[in-house]
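Table S4 entry, Pimeloyl-ACP methyl ester carboxylesterase.
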Amino acid sequence: MLFLHGIGGHSGQWSPIADGLTTRATTLCWDARNYGGSHGPTVAGMADFADDLLALLDLLDLERVIAVGHSMGGRILIEAACRAPERFAGLVLSGAQAAHLAHMTEAEREIYLGRRRAMFDGETVTPEIAARVADSVLAPDAPEAARTALSADFQALRRDGYLSALNGSIGWDRRGDLPALTMPVALVTGTHDSVCPPSESRAIAEALPDARLTLLDGIGHMPQLEAPEACIRLIDDFLARHASGASTTDLSGKAP
């Protein structure tokens, strides 16, 4: 089982969840290109991330997997599943969207990007801005530990990775391709998610042939930090129902 982080994250955000599921499946958490410990050419769009993911499956000799994607990680999974649906036995999409700011004009997109560039003081995000961004995506009463951890994650963002991923996301739109994705899909969204409101998750669930939506009451955009136990239960239930469709390849010595 693979776990993919969001645009402001890294593999460690999913590690506690993945560790809680090891009795059910072999779990791997990735760093997207130019995030965390991953390095490579600048990405031009979601297709580059999807190609990376499919190349990783090939490297590990994984014919079919169940994958979990948060926010941008969910966009990557949707893109990869549209390109190679046979590689996925099931998807779990957390706070994910099937289109990202596709409604914006070019001028509006440039304003949006300018605001995100302004987060950085040189190559780093200041503690004050990191805390402000964390507050904007978490529920008002999110645990202080989640607020502290997310603020630290934003401070550790790599400018090149974040901005290229942002550029590559804006305008991406796979809404019209959702009906062709026939694998089982679980969607999870916080009722206080300001980035991916429940209405967007409902629209995805309605467009997919085999989807189930779970709303987490009082949770914002980061359920893996705000409600880890609920995430473990939800994913464990999904695995219990669909793990038989995934590959059983021995990954000993293969994980990069």
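Residues 228-242 form the longest helix (15 residues).
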